[in-house]
Amino acid sequence: MSQFRALAGILRSRGWQCLLLPGGGGGGGPACRSVLAGSARSCFAGPSAPTAVNSSSSTSSSSSYVEEMYFAWLEDPTNVHESWDTFFRHAQAGAVSDGAVEGPPSALLQGRAGHQTPSMARKVVEDHLAVHTLIRAYQIRGHHVAQLDPLGILEADLDCFVPSDLITTIDKLGFYGLDESDLDKTFRLPFTTFIGGGDTTLPLREIIRRLETSYCGHVGVEFMFINSVEQCQWIRGKFEPPGAMHFTSAEKRTLLARLVRSTRFEDFLARKWSSEKRFGLEGCEVLIPALKMIIDSSSAAGIDSIIMGMPHRGRLNVLANVIRKELNQIFCQFDPKLEAADEGSGDVKYHLGMYHERINRETDKTLTLSLMANPSHLEAVDPVVQGKAKAEQFYRGDSQGKKVMSILIHGDAAFAGQGVVYETFHLSELPSYTTHGTIHVVVNNQIGFTTDPRVARSSPYPTDVARVVNAPIFHVNADDPEAVMHVCRVAAEWRSTFNKDVVIDLVSYRRFGHNEMDEPMFTQPLMYKQIRRQEDVLKKYSDKLISEGVVTLQEFEEEVAKYDKICEEAYTSSKDEKISHIRHWLDSPWPDFFTAEGEPKSMSCPPTGLEEGVLQHIGLTASSVPLEGFNLHPGVSRILRGRSELVKARQMDWALGEYMAFGSLLQEGVHVRLSGQDVERGTFSHRHHVLHDQEVDRRFCVPMNHLWSDQAPYTVCNSSLSEYGVLGFELGFAMASPNALVLWEAQFGDFHNTAQCIIDQFISPGQAKWVRNNGIVLLLPHGMEGMGPEHSSARPERFLQMSKDDPDRFPLIVFTPKSLLRLPDARSSFDELSKGTRFKRLIPNEGPASENPQQVKRVIFCTGKVYYELARERKVLNLEGEVALIRLEQISPFPFDLVRSEVERYSNAELVWCQEEHKNMGYYDYVRPRFLTVVANQKPIWYVGRDPAAAPATGNKATHLNELRRFMDTAFNLGVFQGRKF
């Protein structure tokens, strides 16, 4: 580190605080990075770093000599004369006055370039540092003064202040100890910049000009917070070289044609349906060529499948001109006579998705594009896209994301304001969730509905959330199409090179209100006065290319007329009723699962039982460690021994039963993925699907992946502490294939509350709105066990309220037990999983009551763990012959046929529904009308359970036990019944 301390000492002498940190450097020894904390300025110097030289030959010669001496001294102090050693050591000590530092011997200097004073030598070093610091200042903060707003009225970073260390006026040169006379001095450039092109030296005036061109024009680059020198150098190499933003005439013509399509599409919709909401793209028409540039560049790099997600603004344009959905399919959605499709309720046109395979014209490669359907909940689609992209990568063996990638389009206000954006970013580097880089495009309208960004966020930019994962952020003026294309090309190359996220901030405006019917002048009068005067980007760019001679006016007008004709012809054909079918908007088809008519190929549930040998094999694997020399924790060893004993007894508890279910699917080639918080061990320390070596760090074993040599893979992964983002991710993963079991487990059932948006907007209505099929399974620990209101109820009433009782394959919600995980009474025999058995929707009474049904006085229907409490109480009261307990294992769809059979079987008994949840929660409201339908009002049904309450459970243990005692007494009071009638 000593080789840099001399320079740091000079800086300290100027009042700058320095922190010396290890950094990369060139040969001759290690280099250090100086972070100038006092002013947030920094410089980078190494043994190979050049120094400043004076433009005069005499001073240039002497400064080169000083440089030689200085770097020789850095290598070894004995390399230089002792007077030089003294000088550099004093500089290192921080002395600055002429009297405090012994200068180098004049004889040595005279031998090179005549006499040079110590002050002159120090000036060489100081100027060297000043120029390097200046360059770095532009790299760090140049984006703050970039010309990003097309309207010229707002600052993209919400702050009009110009950083004091950026040279915008000559008088600020003094900040660096320079003055106007230094502007024409030539300085050698450091290796941390590419502004020289092929030149190694430039005059200071030219250095500043090139820095402002690179960092303060229509592109603002945020990247210096990235902690990788390699990545920072890569980005500098894309923006700093002169002529970096270069396009051929052919590329400019392609860009113009794409702008024509983007702009004229919106114009066509505005003419034909002037009073319809369409959430058009006017003001950011450049989004279409931007996305196409990303896709072209990614296709050239080998990508052949892209999954996209976006909010409603601009969606129809993206569908038409990026995904290339047939225009007549889009136009028919505007037909006021269009009826809802037979498959479901449908959705508004600007929420729908699309799946399309086509040839990319620029690369001549086949490309599959999916735009995911999304509700009005804006960023909710983010993790869903990531999950689907991850699934496609997984099933294709694309472990590095070289074939499948994701693109997310955001609005500025939502990107800054929606927490799911942060949750999704934090999945980006996790091994079981990474998609190896997502390209984020923010359509920055500089307004959210009616809210000014200055009161909508606390961060300077809406994109600042991306800094948490070291994603570079490219801000760009959306009215400069070529700057946008350059940024998009660089973003695609970044993702291909580093497999990391990157953000493009398209700083634009919204020409109309929130929708086309809205009046924006109410809240943003100054902005919209300017917008009304604003020439659209197509006019600006076409004029530019015509003036450059790239195209003629006639060629431009012909391009416009050609696309207008395409739209008119599609409009005419859109009146054909046959094409208005919601299945054309399916974003995730399951071609092997459905018939040509759209029905599932198999409507029946086959037996799920297993051969005895299979059960034994899975059980033994679940109770052993397949790896040699593996050091188990003693507690885990006891758990595995307990499993082994269960297998010998042909019994299973909950954890072993789960093992049997998963393992048998893996044998059949069905991939199983279990995700959630602490699922590897299990919240209640019951699962232990991942075993950890107690002596070797990061050595672990997943026995489930050692069942059979040709089995499907089992993925079990602890997630980040996120529900919204992770459930959305798993929903997207489950979307990719019907031939997989994808499960998300909440740490406690009530934690799904923070993922309610995914449940309400995607899982429950997904098929009705979007014909979206999904088989995701939610495992939600549930049960009133005296643990207070937050760890008791998974809110089954909410799921039941959303259910429509359709028996086809749908998402599955399992309210998993907690106290039953180890309860001996809750164990099952292997016989219950043997060959020929299947899932029981209802478990009838077993024991004396079922042997003499006519003698039974009361039938109690229930579900969940309350059965075991009822069974225990019945045994204590010796009522096993008088009270029948019947369990509903499947609540929805309601098992009408089986319930009716049981009611008829116990024809003399009174009927009771018993639940441990409060009356206004749990299952009561759902089962009540269905029980009444079964009995056809021929006999009463009574409710037994807790009284209505606001909180799901009490936090007082004594109160909990009193409540339990009360409804147990009611359930078995065969004298005067104290229950409540349905």
TrEMBL record:
Superkingdom of the source species: Eukaryota
GO molecular function: metal ion binding; oxoglutarate dehydrogenase (succinyl-transferring) activity; thiamine pyrophosphate binding
Family: Belongs to the alpha-ketoglutarate dehydrogenase family.
GO biological process: glycolytic process; tricarboxylic acid cycle
Cofactor: thiamine diphosphate
Chain segments annotated as transmembrane: none
Keywords: Oxidoreductase, Thiamine pyrophosphate, Transit peptide
NCBIfam families in alphabetical order: 2oxo_dh_E1, PRK09404.1
Protein name, UniProt field: oxoglutarate dehydrogenase (succinyl-transferring)
E.C. code: 1.2.4.2
Location of the Transketolase-like pyrimidine-binding domain: 652-823
InterPro entries membership: 2-oxogl_dehyd_N, 2oxoglutarate_DH_E1, DH_E1, KGD_C_sf, ODO-1/KGD_C, THDP-binding, Transketolase-like_Pyr-bd
A Pfam short name: 2-oxogl_dehyd_N
Catalytic reactions on record: N(6)-[(R)-lipoyl]-L-lysyl-[protein] + 2-oxoglutarate + H(+) = N(6)-[(R)-S(8)-succinyldihydrolipoyl]-L-lysyl-[protein] + CO2
